[in-house]
Amino acid sequence: MPSPDVSTATKPVEPASRAVTDRRRHNRVPVVLLGRFMRATKHEYPCKMIDISVGGAALMAPAEPEMGEKIIAYFDQLGGLEGNVVRNFAGGFAMQFTATAHKREKLAAALMFMLNKHEQPGIEARRHERIVPKSNSQSLTLTEGLTIACEVVDMSISGASIVTPARPEPGTIVKLGNLNARVIRHHERGIALEFVDVQNPNAMRRYFG
Hints:
Number of domains: 2
Oligomer: single chain
CATH architecture of the largest domain: Beta Barrel
Radius of gyration: 18 Å
Structural class: alpha+beta
Mean pLDDT: 78
Shape: globular
Strand order of the largest sheet: 1-2-3-6-5-4
Largest sheet: 6 strands, antiparallel, barrel
Helix content: 10-25%
CATH topology of the largest domain: Thrombin, subunit H
Order of helices and strands: HHEEEEEEHEEEEEEEH
CATH class of the largest domain: Mainly Beta
């Protein structure tokens, strides 16, 4: 079944000349990436990206968000993507990104890197392996210098999900153990973090068990 056309699904009705220009600027790229997304209710669900442009993306998901609902989707390869639902289809939905010009430039660069790396029209990218540490007790240091205990739900070489009562704003730099990380989003039990630097998998396994 052909994937939904995000380039047309993510834009309101516009004059034909403008729509053609936008489609050229926001070329769709077939992509298969596994991730998670959070609804406005703060509930999280797994999802699978099937195509993307710098303007929006189409995701397959078990939950159907409302039209116009704010969504935050997270993929290890691309980080956090914020936007609004602009279309529902069988088994998923399309979202239009709400991003600054700088964020769109970074996304375009990441997509170009992935395309060049695979040297093919589509991408089948593996999500960074997530592990559950044997010892999930860890420390979280906030910007105020306050260090509190937390629990690691799971982690990969690029980020972690932790249980904590703390709710630093998305974008805040914190420290998980000795690792600098950026808060990506909140979830029901705590926060999701993206490490400032991608970690060496062997060193990470030794450190977290």
